[in-house]
Design goal:
2 copies of one chain form a homodimer. With 410 residues, chain A is an alpha+beta fold. Chain A is built from 11 helices and 16 strands. Chains A, B: It catalyses: N(2)-acetyl-L-ornithine + L-glutamate = N-acetyl-L-glutamate + L-ornithine; L-glutamate + acetyl-CoA = N-acetyl-L-glutamate + CoA + H(+).
Chain lengths: 410, 410
């Protein structure tokens, strides 16, 4: 396929990102596909770095996901290897052997345990990752010059149209700690935990158990609240690494000083990264925020919001800049959650278009039409039943999505 | 929107259908939209006709659906009124008043109870059905010449590109009974019971309780096993009417002579009608049959098959004639049902492409490519876990779907 142009929803440029003490980035050409670009990222993490992660719930996960799932309970990390262009998923023993070979080679280079090495890969499914290319790529990376965040963010991309990264900060006692995250993902994005690949690095000192609890908490309202096409990847992985180089008193529980600030910074980071994925949704021309209120519970609100966000008819209506709120009613009705038609209210932008189970008599269509012509769309649904609420984010469904996916592998 | 061309998956022509004694069809112009076509269908049923139905499970059903739900327990019918171009859904009291007015006027004309009159409407959501147009249309229909099945099948259409009907027969004792069905539906099709509107007529004598049990049984493996876009309509309705004019000894239980033959004919009828809806799926260029075997249960197989059938990435791959079985793995993995990657086998047409959790070494891609170039696609998935099996039917996802739905209301 021809690489589509930079998403119209992409931010102006790449953000200014600080270095994170204890993190060294390198990239190399493993040439997993017939392309002349860096496609292997090798991140070294200084001793003492703690790790946490959330992984796809797919019943057919990649061997990389299984490797990370086995390594996470130890809570420590010395390296991260990311391959682009081949997901190595559904490749049986050969795929598992490739992951083991990568971890072993990186561990030998760093003098650490293979279980200290985290591995992630995305790209085509069903083709075993070639071990010879991976090892040659790693060897090249070991001796490469250290690079910056933008090179790393570019090297993990597949069908992405722009590099995605964010920075947040928090104060712990007398130290300011920084979080830098990079993410990739554009299609096969659905909320069964995550985008495809996200990596977060901080110089804060955080005990691994707390880091895991904080990442899991941050995930639910961020990566688990986005969808591009309802299709959950076999490789979804979000990992967080804390080097401790900021010199703050290590925090180990939510009661420790600074823990709230760290949780806020981590959640903000995850939200920024999740939004960047939606903004690079395959074929996307509109960024859509859907807020459901008045549900019987937050979980119920979340499921109804996703039913709307995953509806092809809602997504195509937005693509057509058509305030077709009847399709929103349909999506609420099919969600299978408690709802009463005659208590339902729907809003596009700031304009109430339906309330009490029917259209608002002669509502002003002008502001609605103007809102839908924009790139940032807001849909609000109130069920009038309880206090449950949730917000999810998605993009519209356009000819671009069909073009990208009807000839992806070819 | 401009009416799209006849679906490439449409059958050659319209079938030869027998008259059903006790059923009289009439059509008229209510002009629910700015079009010059018949859009109101009035079916009279002779006294003694029994009725059964299955209705959408949407939490936001149309008042027509609520009306039918209330009338069905009585099990008898004297008339059916079908409106095209306006679903009357989400219109509050005005919508309910329109349905009551239609039933009252038809009942007065026939000298029956309003509850003997079934009403169904499809089209745009949120616009109250204009009572004056409905009553004028009814009055015109009362005095119109009786028409044939094709006229009725055409009059219930909205975005459909061809008239859909089928015939089946069964022998009860010394009588042969006939079933004739008509159906409409093309978008907003998802398996939460049914297509949008389906009507089945038979001259058999069947007690209403048994007719309902038989229709519900037939529905599960037919209308509930199709999906075009995963979007469940607010108006889904399938009704069956038995006039008893064939003179067979009325059947009242599954143990009665001929009951098995009638169930088979009714199920065959529902399957034929369901397939016709998929063949008119918005933008469809391929008819896809997905069979899942080796699941832990039939229900589990059904959910996994629908996860594949509703996957935009699977549907776009088929549109691109790409044997991208990795996307099938993804869809199995995301279904949330018991599955073991390393026991999974996948087949396109007759060719096994993956087994035991990895690609079949050097499988012959030629027959797969040839199969995908056809209009009838078969995907087989074996989970290797148990005896559960299910088959569902869908169509591919093409630019046509986007074009139709990005400017439907406009």
């Amino acid at each position: 396929m021809t690489q589509p142009a930079r998403s119209p929803l992409a931010p102006e440029g790449f953000p200014d990102l600080p270095a994170i003490a204890g993190v060294t980035l390198r990239v190399a050409r493993a040439r997993y596909k017939a392309w002349d670009r860096c496609d292997l990222t090798f991140v070294t993490l200084d001793p003492g770095t703690t790790a946490a992660g959330v992984l796809t719930r797919s019943k057919c996960p990649s061997p990389e996901v299984e490797w990370c799932r086995a390594a996470l309970p130890l809570g420590i990390a010395r390296a991260l290897v990311v391959n682009a262009g081949n997901s190595n998923a559904f490749t049986g023993n050969r795929g598992r052997a490739a992951v083991e070979a990568i971890a072993a080679r990186a561990a030998a280079h760093l003098g650490c345990q293979p279980s200290d090495v985290f591995v992630a890969s995305t790209g085509v499914i069903g083709v075993p990752l070639p071990i010879d290319k991976a090892e040659a790529g790693l060897d090249a990376a070991f001796t490469a010059q250290a690079c910056g965040w933008k090179d790393a963010a570019a090297t993990i991309m597949t069908t992405d149209t722009f590099e995605k990264a964010a920075v947040t900060r928090a104060v712990i006692g007398d130290r300011t700690v920084s979080f830098v995250g990079i993410v990739k993902g554009s299609g096969m994005i659905a909320p069964d935990m995550a985008t495809m690949l996200g990596f977060i690095f901080t110089d804060a000192a955080i005990e691994p158990g707390l880091l895991q609890a904080m990442l899991s908490a941050a995930n639910r309202a961020t990566f688990s609240a986005i969808t591009v096409d309802s299709d959950t990847s076999t490789s979804d992985t979000v990992l967080a690494f804390a080097t401790g180089k900021a010199g703050n008193a290590p925090i180990a529980s939510f009661d420790d000083a600074g823990a709230d600030a760290v949780q806020a910074a981590l959640t903000d980071m995850c939200r920024q990264l999740a939004h960047l994925v939606v903004r690079d949704g395959e074929g996307a021309s509109k960024f859509i925020e859907i807020t459901v209120t008045g549900a019987e519970s937050d979980d119920s609100a979340h499921r109804i919001a996703l039913s709307i966000a995953n509806s092809p008819l809602v997504k195509t209506a937005i693509a057509g800049e058509d305030a077709n709120w009847g399709r929103v009613v349909m999506a609420v009705g099919k969600a299978g959650e408690p709802a009463e038609r005659d208590k339902l209210s729907i809003r596009f932008g700031a304009t109430q278009v339906a309330t009490g189970g029917l259209a608002v008599e002669g509502y002003d269509e002008a502001p609605v039409a103007a809102h839908l012509k924009g790139k940032e769309i807001e849909i609000g649904v109130d069920l009038g039943l309880g206090d449950g609420r949730a917000t999810v984010w998605t993009c519209d469904l356009t000819h671009g999505y069909i073009s990208i996916n009807a000839d992806y592998r070819s």
